Amino acid sequence: MPKIISGTKMHICERVNYFLFVSILLLLWLCLNAQAPATQMQAGGIADPRLDARVESLLRKMTLEEKIGQLVQYSAGQQTGPGTGRTDYEDMIAKGQIGALFNISTAKETNAYQHIAVEKSRLHIPLVFGLDVIHGFRTEFPIPLGLASTWDPALVENAARIAAQEASATGIRWTFSPMVDIARDARWGRITEGAGEDPFLGSEMAAAYVRGYQGQRLDAPDSIAACAKHYVGYGAAEGGRDYNSTEISEHTLRQFYLPPFHAAVNAGAATIMSAFNTINGVPASANPFTLTQVLRKEWGFRGVVDSDYGSVGELVAHGIANDDATAARKGLLAGVDMDMASSLYHDHLADLVKSGQVPQAHLDEAVRRVLRVKFALGLFEHPYADEARESGAMLHPDSIELARTAAERSFVLLKNSPGPSNAPLLPLSNAVRDIALIGPLADDPANMLGSWGGLGRAEEVISLRAALAKRIGEQHVIYAKGAGIRDAADEDLNAAVAAAGKADLAILALGEDAGWMTGEAASRTNLGLPGRQQELLEKVVAAGKPVVLILFSGRPLTLPWAFEHVPAVLEAWYPGIQAGTALVRTLFGDSGPSGKLVVSWPRVVGQEPLYYNALSTGRPADKYDLTRPPQNSDEKYVSRYIDEVNSPQFPFGYGLSYTTFGYGPVSVSSKQLSAATLNKGLNANTPALTAEAEICNCTFVCEEPAWLSRYAR
Ligand code: BGC
Asked: Is the bond leading into 567 cis (omega within 30 degrees of zero)?
């Protein structure tokens, strides 16, 4: 008969044995779980065990000041946040007081600083140079939200590889990308930088970027270290207001916000950036639960945690540190290894260690991580950029070709109603003669680069106007700007209407100003067209010619009038350097739009946050007609708005193409088919396109919503 072990009846020896057994199991579990992911351990990864001896040997030689220096990082170029007032970097580097610099971007500049580190500092430890290489370096691809709309991780991986090849040629061996924050609220400007609202797709994209940046081996000269950011929950900023607090239950954190970071770690990401926000009252850059328990103990991450810009210093403003020294102590002890830009580690860690407030062992561990990444990158062997390789590495024809393909696949066709010939307005017929091209974004190369345009240059962008003129002839493009993005004069509006009157068709290029209205510190409460663009749109439509509206934006825009009155609407995001070429090819049907939304598109701002994988409420409203105000108490006391429907304008996954699909009952005509029979409609030039999705419904805390678990392009 099996022995039943019950707490009170167990013999003392049995209890000890049982305790030992459980402890061993627990230890085993912890060890297994804390082990670094295989990608980090493999040759060329950040946790390659062969690096350890080198790290230890160097660490033993370092003074306290030199150790702290490895944890200090400053911007030596354009500021992307508040400055510290310091500029004495050369002197500090020579003293071993700086481990990393960012925001410089030419081989000449990186080499100049590197010479000081390698030749003048006592231990000759190289610097690592970082930059926000977000969706390309010189060859700019579509913004990340657009790249994610391709649903094509292989393409994203290739784009990241090209970015790495270009950036590394200037000595940049570290990018602050991918941004893997789940975002459910289009008011938040940084929704533009990520892969949208879904954790599964977000994880696929996160891993793809990491693979692309880091390549097969980190020490290959054209590989750069990735940095998954902003850890964690940053996208849940209350009210969509940037830097704002977040309240996220552990369940929601683990189910939605953490998975893309975990995917990045599993793909071998060398670094993680700790975010600005608080999570349930605790700042992400001083949060031992997320930074140490989850990241280190559960996931086994052995790379570097870098703070976001000044986020260690901001612990004082958050109110969890009375002074700068306490902020430095809390940041480091929670698990932030490197201090980006606040200078507090430089200013206070030495005293904190000497007084015992920060254990020496804790400091050493942070330094080990930084050194490990530097060894893994091969910086000790090859500290300098090859200035001769720099210019030749940029803008290869293949890279430009990929930028075009990526742009074409990122466009989401939102509406395509019949035009004059009763066929859908798009694609345009080659017989169209004169086109009125109207709007502030029709000839605005700089905006095509998005809010983190890297080193992309406006003069290398093909604008919509240039590409259209090339396609149909300059004389057939009747261009009228019509309005600025944020303002307009009456005469310009009138000139645009007159232009539409002279043409067969009008193309309007409207949207947001990428630099000002999208990205960091660009939250909006109004998601309509800025300035007088809505007025421009309505006036041009009233001119009576068929209208194609192309939207350039870093987020969904609430444009109910346009979706009702404009026959064709294409969301183009910010497409990168090949914007115009890709758009014109799409307009004329050389390429069919295949992008699908990765965010739920709201009808009105009041619906935000809006996302498809929301829990069911106890009072679902789906039985009722929500297009009218509630008529009785059954219709009223359900989870709804009294003045708007619950559903989005366009749901997650939405996107039209130039064809239609019929669905019907499924039957199997034959149980076996040869490949030749199956492929008979394809020839060598027709890419096989499969569409496949699996929606699963898993039970966890309570009934989970149906959500994406597999798909194929
Ligand atoms: C942003 C980060 C960026 C960093 C460095 C911060 O303000 O939040 O995303 O990587 O600046 O430029």
From this structure: no
